[in-house]
Specification:
Helix content: over 70%
GO molecular function, one term: actin binding
Largest sheet: none
Order of helices and strands: HHHHHH
Distance between the termini: 106 Å
Structural class: mainly alpha
InterPro entries: FAM107
Subcellular location: Cell junction, Focal adhesion; Cell membrane; Cell projection; Cytoplasm, Cytoskeleton, Stress fiber
Organism: Oriolus oriolus
Main location: other
Number of helices: 6
Length: about 150
């Protein structure tokens, strides 16, 4: 059955099944405006043209696409060296902390930990205790304001 349908289609189209129509401007009619090919904005841009030119030159020289220009390699090397230097300085600064600074840091961490524990305890307190504490605060504030 499918073979017979194919033969019927072939009989209907004597040109071999070409669906595309031929354009009218090939006839040479001077009244018709001939279409121009549209420019690709990417290919028309200066940066794309310069990049393409550089790629062609590198290909002619035998350089790979992965190889970077010398300036870019130098800049990346400098950035890498700078980051390494900064990390070393930070590590030295940590090592050179005086015992006093270390003790201060420990105390600060302990205070932070105690504050967090107090906040947790306050969160578990019943509602009426929280309200009572708020009332005490407001009453002491108004007393201080009257004295001032």
């Amino acid at each position: 059955l499918p073979a017979s349908m194919y033969t019927e289609i072939q009989r209907e189209r004597p040109d071999g099944g070409n669906i595309l129509t031929h354009p009218d401007y090939i006839d040479g009619n001077p009244d018709l405006i001939k279409p121009k090919k549209l420019l690709n904005p990417v290919k028309a841009s200066k940066s794309h043209q310069e990049l393409h030119r550089e790629l062609l030159m590198n290909h002619k020289r035998g350089l790979g696409v992965e190889s970077k220009p010398e300036l870019q390699r130098v800049l990346e090397h400098r950035r890498r060296d700078l980051l390494i230097k900064q990390k070393k300085e930070e590590e030295e600064a940590k090592k050179l902390q005086s015992p006093f600074e270390k003790e201060l840091l420990k105390r600060h961490q302990r205070l932070d930990q105690l504050e967090k524990e107090q906040e947790k305890q306050e969160d578990h307190a019943p509602e009426f205790i929280k309200v009572k504490e708020n009332l005490r605060r407001t009453s002491t504030m108004t007393g201080e304001e009257k004295a001032a």
